[in-house]
From TrEMBL:
CDD domains in UniProt: ABC_DR_subfamily_A
GO molecular function per UniProt: ATP binding; ATP hydrolysis activity
Coiled coil residues, start to end: none
Organism, as annotated: Methylobacterium oryzae CBMB20
Protein name per the record: ABC transporter ATP-binding protein
UniProt keyword terms in alphabetical order: ATP-binding, Nucleotide-binding, Transport
Ranges for domain ABC transporter: 1-230
C-alpha cells in the first residue's frame, strides 16, 4: 500500500496536506495523531469512500480513487466496534461474511481461521450477542484471514479493552502480519504500539511529521517524542 503526496480538503479545511505513507507486506504500521489529525480520512481514502483532491492512493498497485471496488476487495476494515449478527455464533458469522465475499468455507476451515485469530474454541458456537469487544474483533480478523486480504485496516482497535484483552489482541495482530498481511492501525494507544508496530507515523499538520521505530524507546520516551512532535518541538 502506498499513499503519495495525498491532499484532501473539506470546504476550507485541509485534512491532509501532502501525506506520504508506504506499507509493506507483513508490516504493522501505527498511525498516531489526535482527534481531527486525519486518521479516519486516511482510512476512508484507502477504502475508496473518499477521493483525494491530489496525489495517489494505491492498494496492491490498484488506484483506490479510480477503482475502489478492486482496491477494497484486497482490504479488510475492522472499525472500533465490530458489528456481528447477535443471534448467530462466531462460526456462523464468519461463514456468512465469507459467503458475501464469494467464498464457500466449511466448518473445519472456519474453525481454523477462528483459532488463528485467537478466539477460544468454547466461544465458536456461542451467540455473538454475548461476545466482548475483543472477541468480536477476533471474528473480524478471522473474516479477513478467510478472505486472504492483503491489507488490514484497524481503527482504534484497543480502545475500551482491558489490559489482558489488549495484550491478546496485540498477539493476534502480530500473527496476522507474520502470515504476510500488511496492517495499518489508527490509534492513540502508545503503550500497545510498542508491542504491535514495526513503525509509528506521527500525523500532524496533515502529513506524517515523523516516523519512529517504537522498539528503540521506552514507553515514557515514546510518549515524550509524540507529544513533542505534535507541539512542533521535534525537528
Amino acid at each position: 500500500m502506498a499513499l503519495g503526496r495525498v491532499v484532501k480538503q473539506f470546504g476550507g479545511r485541509t485534512a491532509l496536506s501532502g501525506l506520504d505513507l508506504t506499507l509493506r507486506a507483513g508490516e504493522v504500521y501505527a498511525l498516531l495523531g489526535p482527534n481531527g489529525a486525519g486518521k479516519t480520512t486516511t482510512i476512508n481514502l484507502i477504502l475508496g469512500f473518499l477521493k483525494a483532491d491530489a496525489g495517489e492512493v494505491r492498494v496492491c498497485g490498484i488506484d483506490a480513487g479510480t477503482d475502489p471496488i478492486a482496491a477494497r476487495a484486497r482490504t479488510a476494515y475492522i472499525p472500533e466496534q465490530v458489528a456481528l449478527y447477535p443471534g448467530q455464533s462466531g462460526l456462523e458469522n464468519l461463514r456468512y461474511f465469507a459467503t458475501l465475499a464469494g467464498l464457500a468455507i466449511d466448518r473445519a476451515e472456519a474453525e481454523t481461521h477462528l483459532a488463528a485469530a485467537g478466539l477460544a474454541p468454547e466461544a465458536w458456537s456461542r451467540p455473538a450477542s454475548g461476545y466482548s469487544k475483543g472477541m468480536r474483533q477476533k471474528v473480524g480478523i478471522a473474516i479477513a484471514l478467510a478472505r486472504k486480504t492483503r491489507l488490514l485496516l484497524l481503527d482504534e482497535p484497543t480502545s475500551g479493552l482491558d489490559p489482558s484483552a489488549a495484550a491478546a489482541f496485540s498477539g493476534t495482530v502480530r500473527a496476522a502480519a507474520e502470515r504476510g498481511t500488511a496492517v495499518l492501525m489508527a490509534t492513540h494507544d502508545l503503550y500497545r504500539v510498542r508491542e504491535m508496530a514495526d513503525r509509528v507515523g506521527v500525523l500532524a499538520g496533515g502529513r506524517v511529521a515523523e516516523e519512529i521505530d517504537p522498539r528503540r524507546y521506552a514507553h515514557t520516551d515514546l510518549e515524550r517524542l509524540y507529544i513533542a512532535r505534535l507541539s512542533g518541538a521535534v525537528t
